[in-house]
């Protein structure tokens, strides 16, 4: 018997009585979604730009490029100085990545990014600093609302990103900047 | 796999307890996590509802597990994901090695996975000439220190920053005497980045596998799973059969409780949904039983498979906090470690490394009845005739004494007399481990019963 058949056969009779599929019936907290998102994002170490965000981002990136930084941008209105490569290793020297997020979650400050938005899966992780652009009217209250809207059939890879990478593995001291981006700014448009 | 060790829980705890200052520090560090968890939980009015939902989704899935595993496999295949089944750790390791050998992999970067720890994958691959780099900072620290994890979420919680500094100085060339966590973390980032960029394959654990999508979810704060998983073209993901959830709605419930209960964050920095190989790449999922279907045959042990490995029960445990992760004779410590590992403990003592205070059950986000399972593990040990040394002798006597009012009252008056009249030094040996670091109580002159009869009985 193959291991698959053996495992499935063993699962034919389990000691747990059949349980019905439950249903989430939690009312989302809808007051001031932008304010909630802002507070959550700060709490996880990120920052938010919401006034004239696209102009602010364009100016910021232009200045970074002028200083000689390596910037990759997947957002049409913003131009970086690097192309999306086929081999992800080619992005090892990226200083800044500008990526379009599809929706944002108020309760935890996260932004949903897919491989289409990122151009290449590694982009939001390998860069030193990450700029995420997200539309204000895509903010939802919580993860239940977020996962209702996401259709994984459209993508092979997606990730909720909540703040810059962090660790507390040495004596529980929080250090921002572990393996992924060391800073994260969300531009709300 | 049974740990071949003869030291029992109390003996191993004693080693940890020799350094009193460290014990206090360890206990406080974990209690801090518990406090953060409490703040995160109480910030959600629906917290209890989420725990109930978490439990119900898990019970539903476990009671239909065969169907969901098959649905998951079919959806994975549609997405171009290759699925493998392993009945035990040895088969899991063989499958992993075959895939790696086929691609001539020399270096594998791995992100945290308790399952690969359970299967002893690292030594197996190293024997076959494959270099394995653990990439979670805590895991890398203990890998360099040649130690197993002492906690499932914060694996290097037993080490002080000075010790990490010393280790890093020796192994990755940080400055001598440097112990600043930010400096050490930055150095590890550089060191591990080289490994990420030069690895031939990456491997991760799985937090959830979504049946109706054919997707797996991996949660990290550091981004190591994604730095690994998104660079080399070959990626492998190992999961126990208990990681299954039916759909996105179930995942949304667990994603709301996991990080809040683990470390007090609203969600981990990264919650990644892998739903197919990267363009031109290969993605493998290995589904592992290794004793889980056996646990599912027992009504109470089956509930331990609701666990989502948040570590919350470990952080709150008064015994774990003061005995350390290496005292449990199992690779998972604390209440959940006893619940799933007591039968592997051939010293037959870890089932007693618990006060049955119930704090673990109270914090668990999927309502695993940990205290009930631990009490049940003791009963199983008694039924197997494997009570730890001493307990087999006095337990039957305790039963008799407690069962008889005359014997009990008589024993208590002897105890009161002894506590009042005999020197501490003579009595202390009788109080067992309890008396070791404590003073014995002052005994009252009369029993409560006698006092009550005299003063209040009219
Ligand atoms: S038993 Fe519950 S509290 Fe303990 S690790 Fe598992 S999910 Fe967390």
Rg of chain A, alpha carbons:
20 Å
Shape of chain A: globular
Count of discrete alpha- or pi-helical segments spanning 4 or more residues of chain B: 23
Query: Helix/strand-derived class of chain A?
Result: alpha/beta
Within the largest sheet of chain A, what's the order of strands?
1-11-6-3-2
Radius of gyration of chain B in whole Å, from Cα?
A: 25 Å
Beta content of chain B comes to: 5-15%
Distance between the termini of chain B: 62 Å
Q: What overall geometry of chain B do the principal axes of the alpha carbons give?
A: globular
Strand order of the largest sheet of chain B: 1-10-7-4-2-3
Q: What's the total count of β strands of chain A?
A: 11
* Through-space gap between termini of chain A: 57 Å
- Model regions low in confidence, pLDDT < 50 over at least 5 residues of chain B: none
Protein name (chain B): Lactate utilization protein
Keywords (chain B): 4Fe-4S, Electron transport, Iron, Iron-sulfur, Metal-binding, Repeat, Transport
Domain 4Fe-4S ferredoxin-type (chain B): 298-319
Pfam families (chain B): Fer4_8, LUD_dom
């Amino acid at each position: 018997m193959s291991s698959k058949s053996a495992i499935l056969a063993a699962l034919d009779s389990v000691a747990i009585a059949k349980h019905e599929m439950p249903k989430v019936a939690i009312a989302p907290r809808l007051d001031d979604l932008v304010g909630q998102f802002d507070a959550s994002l700060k709490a996880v170490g990120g920052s938010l730009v919401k006034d004239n965000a696209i102009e602010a981002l364009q100016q910021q990136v232009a200045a970074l490029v002028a200083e000689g930084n390596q910037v990759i941008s997947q957002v049409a209105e913003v131009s970086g100085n690097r192309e999306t490569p086929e081999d992800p290793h080619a992005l090892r020297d990226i200083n800044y990545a500008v990526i379009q997020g599809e929706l944002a979650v108020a309760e935890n400050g996260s932004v949903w990014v897919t491989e289409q938005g990122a151009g290449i899966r590694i982009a939001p992780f390998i860069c030193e600093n990450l700029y995420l652009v997200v539309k204000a009217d895509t903010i939802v209250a919580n993860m239940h609302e977020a996962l209702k809207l996401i259709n994984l059939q459209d993508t092979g890879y997606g990730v909720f990103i909540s703040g810059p990478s962090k660790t507390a593995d040495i004596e529980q001291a929080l250090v921002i900047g572990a393996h992924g981006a060391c800073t994260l700014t969300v531009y709300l448009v | 796999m049974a740990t071949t060790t003869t030291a029992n829980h109390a003996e191993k705890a004693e080693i940890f307890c020799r350094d009193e200052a460290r014990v206090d520090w360890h206990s406080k560090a974990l209690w801090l996590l518990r406090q953060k968890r409490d703040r995160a939980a109480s910030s959600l009015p629906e917290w209890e509802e989420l725990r109930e939902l978490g439990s119900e989704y898990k019970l539903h899935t476990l009671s239909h597990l065969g169907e969901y595993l098959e649905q998951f496999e079919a959806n994975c295949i549609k997405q171009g994901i290759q699925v493998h089944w392993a009945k035990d750790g040895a088969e899991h390791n063989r499958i992993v090695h075959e895939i790696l050998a086929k691609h001539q992999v020399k270096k594998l970067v791995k992100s945290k996975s308790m399952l690969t720890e359970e299967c002893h994958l690292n030594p197996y691959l190293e024997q076959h000439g494959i270099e394995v780099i653990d990439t979670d900072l805590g895991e890398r620290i203990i890998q360099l220190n040649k130690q197993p994890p002492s906690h499932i979420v914060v694996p290097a919680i037993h080490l002080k920053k000075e010790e990490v500094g010393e280790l890093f100085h020796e192994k990755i060339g940080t400055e001598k005497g440097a112990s600043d966590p930010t400096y050490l973390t930055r150095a590890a980032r550089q060191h591990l980045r080289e490994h990420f960029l030069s690895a031939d394959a990456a491997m991760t654990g799985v937090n959830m596998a979504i049946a109706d999508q054919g997707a797996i979810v991996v949660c990290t704060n550091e981004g190591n799973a994604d730095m690994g998983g998104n660079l080399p073209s070959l990626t492998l993901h190992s999961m126990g059969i208990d990681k299954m959830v039916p759909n996105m709605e179930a995942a949304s419930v667990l994603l709301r409780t996991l990080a809040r209960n683990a470390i007090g964050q609203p969600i981990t920095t990264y919650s990644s949904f892998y739903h197919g190989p990267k363009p031109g790449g290969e993605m493998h999922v290995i589904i592992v039983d290794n004793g889980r279907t056996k646990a599912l045959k027992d009504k109470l042990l089956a509930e331990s498979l609701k666990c989502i490995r948040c570590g919350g029960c470990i952080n709150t445990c008064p015994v774990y906090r003061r005995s350390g992760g290496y005292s449990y004779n199992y690779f998972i410590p604390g209440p959940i470690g006893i619940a799933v590992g007591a039968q592997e403990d051939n010293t037959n003592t870890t089932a007693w490394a618990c006060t049955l205070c119930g704090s673990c059950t109270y914090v668990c986000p999927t309502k695993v009845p940990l205290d009930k399972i631990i009490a049940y593990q003791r009963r199983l040990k008694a039924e197997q005739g494997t009570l730890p040394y001493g307990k087999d002798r006095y337990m039957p006597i305790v039963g008799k004494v407690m069962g008889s009012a005359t014997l009990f009252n008589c024993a208590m008056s002897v105890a009161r007399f002894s506590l009042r009249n005999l020197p501490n030094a003579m009595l202390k040996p009788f109080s067992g481990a309890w008396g070791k670091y404590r003073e014995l109580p002052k005994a009252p002159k009369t029993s409560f019963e006698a006092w009550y009869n005299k003063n209040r009985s009219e």
